[in-house]
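Support request, please re-run this one:
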Amino acid sequence: MATLQTRASARLMMTPAVVLLLLWMAVPLAMTLYFSMLRYNLLMPGMEEWAGFLNYRFFLTDPAFFTGLLNTLLLVGGVLVISVGGGILMALLLDQPFFGQGIVRLMVIAPFFVMPTVSALVWKNMLMHPVNGLFAWIARTFGLQPMDWFGEAPLFSIVLIVSWQWLPFATLILLTALQSLDTEQKEAAEMDGAGAISRFVYIVLPHMARAITVVVLIETIFLLSVFAEILVTTNGGPGVQTTTVTYLVYVQALLQFDVGGASAGGIVAVVLANIVAIFLIRLIGKNLE
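Re-run finished. Output below.
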């Protein structure tokens, strides 16, 4: 009886937070769904009319949508490959004892605390600038022609910037998982004659599998909404080469003032993000069994 009363009291105390959270999510979602059904442009106030699913049809049949979807997938995939692969290498290096280990770890994690807008500006004006950038100076030092990063490889440039931001996060999670590995297993494998590559493939990597799946899940959810880096560096260009689904919604909402079309695009983006999240959560669930 006491247990039932305790559970009832706990649920009662949790009710305000749950209701507030539901209102916080449900009200904006309901308003977005409502606006997505309207032909509503801010340049024509008072001329709103019901459009049904017409906004969704226009958004999904827009050629820029398929380009944006492809760019989004390429961006997420590229960042995951670089951040997870680099995170594993960095975790293996930082797991080794050396002088100044704490300072090095702090410096490795530091980029994760830099705001996306600031990091994008630093990369654009100090590193990737075709005339005054660090990469251009290095190229000229070796007698090479400096590369116009945002003109010749715009999407890859965005991938590099975002990967630099997320590499510390992957490194931190994977290093934590690596440090939980029992050293006796590695010592036993080494005594049995297993080389460094064999120990990594058959002992270290399986032990880090769960941490890798968690990193992939968290990064994917956030990478689907990358926006600031694109706005600061390329504005979705040249053309639509760096336009993602998120940036396409921004263009319709704040550049074309099409509230209805932007709301439909936002709902589509939410649905796509939830599909990816459900798939990754199930994948993690299978790995944890």
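The chain has one domain: 53-288. The first strand starts at residue 38 and ends at 39.
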